[in-house]
Design a protein that fits this description.
Two copies of one chain form a homodimer. With 285 residues, chain A is mostly helical. Chain A has helices at 3-15, 22-32, 39-50, 56-77, 94-98, 100-121, 126-138, 146-152, 160-182, 191-211, 214-217, 223-226, 232-254, 262-277, and strands spanning 87-88, 91-92. Chain A is built from 14 helices and two strands; from the N terminus they run H-H-H-H-E-E-H-H-H-H-H-H-H-H-H-H. Chain A has a two-stranded antiparallel sheet. In chain A, helix 2 packs across helix 6 and helix 13 (232-254) packs antiparallel against helix 14 (262-277). Chains A, B: Belongs to the FPP/GGPP synthase family.
């Protein structure tokens, strides 16, 4: 089965037990399907495959749990108290479609479901399961996770490096670490790959926010300028930000640890770089 | 060390790693200290002690995790989109003291921290750790947890039994089940005790909401009537609700499974009943 199909199937399985109350039970799949590019679970499964993927049930559950956290963060970030967004992925945001209380509860429920999904799959490998719970929690909460990243925007003075690493980097670091853990490998050597992909993604997102139209992204643009958030394009210009991203992705490729699937994973990052920049990231000799 | 001291110490230990960003790092302890009666973690530790409490580190972490989820639910329930409460436990609610974005993120972070706390403590007993994660997730999310309970209030037609069991009962069921799991016992026989204490607590809360003043409860009163929520006092009258609660607590005591600490636990529920009603619950012969 393709990685794409595994992710969609795992997400469907994770959501299946939520049958009531009716509106909440409808709001959850609304927030998760149809998805975006599913970048984070794709990276997770790619790393798991590169490490041998000896427990595909567990890596599928890990991939679903990571995407559930990402979807939860989108639902909460779209709330009136944050971005006050009307649209997301080309349709009404959850609070516009269902109400603000249901959006808060849908986000909460998706966070909880993420941990539930790991615990249900971990029966035969409890040590890996607990390491997955711990890693996902660290990269979701505070001080190192996306909650902390979002909360930096409430500070008068932002620690930019902590901000970016937590706001965007955290779930990419979770992706590579959780991929390794799912397959029984040490997650430490995989952190840098996640961090660098996260950095590249942040710069790509800054470029998109600055350059594209709302019709192209499916969500409101110019949000960074409107909310005075730090942005690589404002700092480096368009050409500078593009070159910066290219460098980061080349570094990502050279950071891939020795493993059976190393070459395939390098190809995947290169393809990803091509999609983000229109140019291939070259692998250093 | 007393149960009370164990709970406060475990909560402090759980929150210690959150050092930034500054406002979020301050909002989390603000939401957790000083606490209310800490009823749920007290029940959890009492059940763990009744079962032998052979891994107090794990039962302490479980107790903290359960209280963190309870605190998270209070922060989110107080938000303008729900109760729009100005005060809680005699001081400003988190969104009034810190802002609405920080209240959303504080709730999210506390949920995540709850699962993190279990995973960090479970090293030597990974099977129990995963069962704790799973139980806490089930009683927090949907369809059986407090998120589902709150979401029932967004429905036109409420399933009253599902509503009460999820909204108030869920974390009491979590308390008894998690207490048993922490000590390596089967959680199934403990579910009824949690469910009955939860029912009694709901009736007591209905009585408080109907009868007490805001100064006495430290939070706005008359919220059930204002939000048209189902309430036992409206259904049975004050005397009827009081008698109902008394019956439920007697049933709770008779449901306690055979275990080394059975007698002590029965005393504890009796004391709890006396506090709630002013009269002792009698144990059926």
């Amino acid at each position: 089965m393709s990685v794409e199909a595994r992710i969609e199937q795992a997400l469907k399985a994770a959501l299946a037990p939520v049958v009531s109350p009716p509106k909440l039970a409808a709001a959850l799949p609304y927030a998760v399907f149809p998805g975006g590019a599913r970048v984070r679970p794709t990276i997770l499964l790619s790393v798991a495959l590169a490490c041998g993927d000896d427990r595909p049930d567990l890596s599928d559950a890990a991939a679903a749990s990571l995407e559930l956290i990402h979807c939860a963060s989108l639902v909460h970030d779209d709330l009136p108290a944050f971005d006050d967004a009307d649209t997301r992925r080309g349709k009404a945001t959850v609070h516009r479609a269902y109400s603000e209380p249901l959006a808060v509860l849908a986000g909460d429920s998706l966070i909880v479901l993420a941990f539930d999904t790991i615990s249900r799959a971990a029966g035969l490998a409890p040590d890996r399961g607990l390491a997955l719970v711990s890693t996902l929690a660290t990269r979701t909460g505070a001080p190192l996770g996306i909650c902390a990243g979002q909360a930096w925007e409430s500070e008068q003075s932002i620690n930019l490096s902590d901000y970016h690493r937590a706001k965007t980097g955290a779930l990419f670091i979770a992706a590579t670490r959780m991929g390794a853990i799912s397959a029984g490998h040490d997650p430490e050597p995989w952190e840098e790959l996640g961090a660098r992909i996260g950095e590249a993604f942040q710069v790509a997102d800054d470029l998109k926010d600055a350059l594209q139209t709302e019709a192209e992204t499916g969500k409101p643009v110019g949000q960074d300028a409107a909310h005075m958030r730090p942005n690589a394009v404002a700092r480096l210009g368009v050409a500078g930000a593009m070159a910066h991203m290219q460098n980061i992705l080349a570094g990502a490729i050279s950071s891939i640890p020795s493993c059976p699937g190393e070459a395939h994973l390098a190809q995947l990052v290169t393809a990803y770089a091509r999609r983000l920049t229109g140019q291939p990231a070259t692998r250093p000799a």
